Amino acid sequence: MMYYIIIPAHNEEAFIAKTLDSILHQTKKPKQVVIVNDNSTDTTASIINSYAKKYPIFKIVNTTSSTKHMPGSKVVNAFNKGLAVIDSKYDFIVKLDADIILPNNYFEEIASIFMSNQKIGIAGGFAYEEDKDGNWILNHPMNKDHVRGAFKAYSKSCFNKINGLRSAMGWDTVDELLAQYHNFTIVTNNNLKVKHLRPTGNAYNKQAKLLQGQAMYRMRYGFTISCIASLKMALKQKKAAVFLDNLTGYKNAKKEKLPFLVTPEEGNFIRNLRWKNIKRKLV
Fold this sequence. Notes:
Elements: E1 3-9, H1 16-24, E2 32-38, H2 44-54, E3 58-63, H3 73-83, E4 92-96, E5 100-101, H4 106-116, E6 120-130, E7 136-138, E8 151-155, H5 156-161, H6 171-181, E9 185-196, H7 211-218, H8 223-237, H9 240-256, H10 264-282
Parallel strand pairs: 1-2, 1-4, 2-3, 6-9
Antiparallel strand pairs: 4-8, 5-9, 6-7, 6-8
Protein name: Glycosyl transferase family 2
Family: Belongs to the glycosyltransferase 2 family.
Keywords: Glycosyltransferase, Transferase
């Protein structure tokens, strides 16, 4: 199987070399790796240029956007700049963050997953973060059937069916919901332990705290499901403010009549799926 990797990168001088080295060490190499240098103001450009000169597998795209590190739109917009320079001759495509270290067999295992069943649309491993004692601890705040946005692999057929990634907070949830809408499944592999070098959300702008609730509105969750999902997030993070921020973001999005990310039919499917999962966990 052939695959492409697209890496959005904004001020990643502390981590990106380790990420690129882990790609070079893969037992199954990608067809090409597109690194999108998104308005970096540190030495990211010089680091990736040195890799591109030495290894033809790396291709660089330079783009200019906001310097604010906001989740969602910034990273997807950069991803799409990379997407524009590749051809369609691939079996699966990978959106990869620039601050992770992959196990050497990562993409060999991902390829095996996709080859096992053509209805598998999204695949990935699990994120581990280093604690103060130097131990790598699992950090997976979502359900075990969710693949983190930092290392998502999509089969070509699934990626085309969901019409790529949405340029908004919540893109790495709506993609899985739409994949299921189109009868694709999501597969995770517990043995694929990915080292995430920067804790989730540490670089995000403070304005990002309301975007999760905004995303729930734009995914057509409805107010009740948004309340339940926000309460779950607040309990997991042990922060009551998360619940309030989410609901504020939801109400603001509704008041501003922000455009939805999914159609009414897709929204109906998403709500039914959410209720089904909620009821299953209560039994």
